[in-house]
Amino acid sequence: MATAQRRLGASEGMLSRADSSVRRAARLARRKPLGAVAALLLLVLVLMAIFADAVAPYGPLEQDTSAILAAPTQNHLMGTDNLGRDLWSRIIHGSRISLAVGIGAVTLGTFMGMCVGLASGYAGRTFDLVVQRIMDAWLAFPGLIFVLTIIAALGPGLRQTIIAIGIGFIPATSRIVRSSVLSLKERDYVEAARTIGAGNLRIAFRHILPNLMPIVIILTSISMAAAVLAEATLSFLGVGVPPPAPAWGSMLSGTARVYFLSAPWFAIWPGVFISLTVLSWNLAGDALRDILDPRLRGE
Amino acid sequence: MTQYVVRRLVAMIPTLVGLSMILFLLVRLMPGDAALLQAYTGDDLVLEGETDPEVIDQLRRELGIHQPIFVQYAVWVADTVRLDFGTSYWTRKTVISEMRRRLPVTIELLVMSITVAIATGLVVGVVSAVYQDSPVDYVGRLIGILGLSLPNFWIALLVILLPALWWNYLAPPGYTPFLDNPRENLEKFALPSLTLGWSLSASIMRMSRSEVLEVLRQDYVRTARSKGLAERAVIYRHVLRNSLIPVVTVIGLQIGALIGGSVVIENVFGLPGVGQFILTAINQRDYPVIQSAVLFAALGFLFTNLIVDLSYGFLDPRIRYE
Description:
The complex is a heterodimer.
Chain A: H1 2-31, H2 33-50, H3 52-55, H4 87-123, H5 125-139, H6 143-154, H7 158-184, H8 188-195, H9 200-237, H10 265-292
Helix pairs in contact in A: 1-2, 2-4, 2-10, 4-5, 4-7, 4-9, 5-7, 6-7, 7-9, 8-9, 9-10
Chain B: H1 2-29, H2 34-40, H3 53-63, H4 69-81, H5 95-130, H6 135-149, H7 152-167, H8 182-216, H9 219-226, H10 231-242, H11 244-269, H12 274-284, H13 287-315
């Protein structure tokens, strides 16, 4: 009886919790309409990437020799390229590359940056000094030039692109995390934890790390925008994800440019999708920043 | 002031040492060395098919890449300090002679882009703030967020493509030195620098808008208005000057992105600048060129940041360098 009651109470609690999170989301959407639109767009893009095989009318490499450089028609919504490949299908499949590089690079860069920043800020002293000088030297490379140099060392490819872009995020992320750690470690609750005998590791992971989450979430969203843009740029320059993989950037590069005048749709659509994705991540980042950490407003 | 500059320059030394080490290691990590590449592509030094180990050894010796890595690093640093930036493995021309040809192209592109960016960014940002929440403001903010999100290579492609489609106007490709033909030079740089300037202007726009909004709420602005100053004078004399500092900081932060952007823009518009040089060198694994060109880019970045820091004192006399 008692357990049944408790179970009932629990499920009621869960229900009202779900209900309140829906209501909270609705309230947030009303307060941040742009952010909500961006979140919706991102959801569509993610679904598009997951169900690419089901959504795309053709395979990304499937050639239709009867329709080379065909203008948009019912059969080929966005037209075809110089090899008779359906542009719309390639764009749908390309969202996978863009998303994979985004998630991979941001996970790598944010995780490493967070570790370096946490260690450097928390340890302080000589360790901090040495790490920060290395980061200084690292940050003295103009961003894209550094990523290009890493790409040159690793060679082209999907995995290499993810690693190169991810590594590029480490110094800036670690800087931001470090400065948060510096202020967090002076808080009273850290002092209190130390008084009751908590060790350094426990303080760093149980008391400081959770409080870094708001800033890390904001950074993640903004880094996603940067990563998608970087992947597109690298593929465009011919050093990112190599053809025939349908990376959005490489659809605009090299030999494709020859056909732009006769088949302009070819130049338009990949760019529209890159822009929409980057714009959505930026807008989502803006909204998250306003919600999670209003002090960071004003760039 | 002089003391401050000297101190900043000294502080740059450890950064430069670290930077050169990271750069050197990265370049050495690259798979396949230049000797192998040259041998396999049938460079005129090596006859077709003649890729036996001895020839490659010989080539490595010629290029100096047979020595241990720290010796190579020491040699490179010693050479660089004496302003000897090495010779391209491929063209056999000295890097410095290539740089002399290419640096003016990139510098002209960067200077014109920054001018475009500051001019449009400041004007749109300030107008946007002064007419907050008006249609003008919405359009301004839209231009800003689009500039942040549209990839610059796509804008560049459209800037070439759309006039060609609509008006049959094809921008003249390539590069003409300013002294040869100033008009043609400016015509060829107009579209590239507008494109690159737009992406930079976006952050200047957003920053100056939020800064002007902030300053407009200050007491001294109310005082200036209440003593009967014309709105124009209030904006120019009191608001604008006081909102410039963070804007300058943003410009400094964006210089890195600008240098990266120049690689892309030079590629699309076919400008023979440093960016193209780096990109080609990376594809050809031309170690000396990658090392020196990237080093140039990083140095340019560091010095521009120094100039940005120095301009604070010029904009705000309250800031002293100690």
